[in-house]
Amino acid sequence: MEGHLEEFVEYMTDIRGASENTTASYKRDISAFMRFLEKNGIDGTEKANRTNIMAYIFDLQKQNRAPATVSRNAASLRAYYAWLNKAKLMETNPVEGLETPKVEKKIPTILSLKEVELLLQQPDITDIKGIRDKAMLEVLYATGMRVTELISLCVSDINMELEFLNCRSGGKNRVIPLGSKAIEALDRYMDKARGEMIKKGDEEILFVNCFGSPMTRQGFWKIIKVYAAKANIKADITPHMLRHSFAVHLIENGADIQSVQEMMGHSDISTTQMYAKMNKNKLKEVYNKTHPRA
Hints:
By secondary structure, this protein is mainly alpha-helical.
């Protein structure tokens, strides 16, 4: 019972510019809803009504799914039914105005400046693998990019002379400055390592693995875990933690919210404001601990 799911995914990718991860989530969530409908004798999403959708949301809650998971499923259904309605495949939108569990945004874990420095010092730049790893870590922290964006970079996306990179994500481009340390690490990688690692002379992807193929998310995840262990960082470090750290450290040092939002590619400024709130909380904590009349 595929319905119009593939058409919807194509619309989200080609017209709305949704990322690969986002469209994969939509497809997974809507497919699960379709299976629920089929199990309950309802022939297709266009035949479902508001009661059926509420029953599905209740069923997810009954399975003790996390509020964030329930909310994401509801968001997927909202997007799907809005498209069905817009494409005139349904006259009404049964999800419109549907309330879902409120999801409390978790405050992300970040690394301190000292921990970031320790992490970035770990790669051995006397061998080509270490040179590549150093460049990837420096670029990730210098730009606050998502891992998917990092491993999707092409050589042509880097402007070494003007010290910026062009980040392509979900059909949208954003220009992010590169600091001197990232430029230095990239220059070393391009000069001494990449040429030895690639197998095809016309390889466009910037970062490749030891077999000459484009680096994967899983591959980079393993790399950062190894260096975190070497640096004796106790936090359960993830690549996304460097993205959070990038934002908080910028704001701590005086960057304005709009600039950070633009660099991180947030469509909603409220997402970026979370980092400013974290910084205020930190300042208050320091004040309470150090001011004699706090």
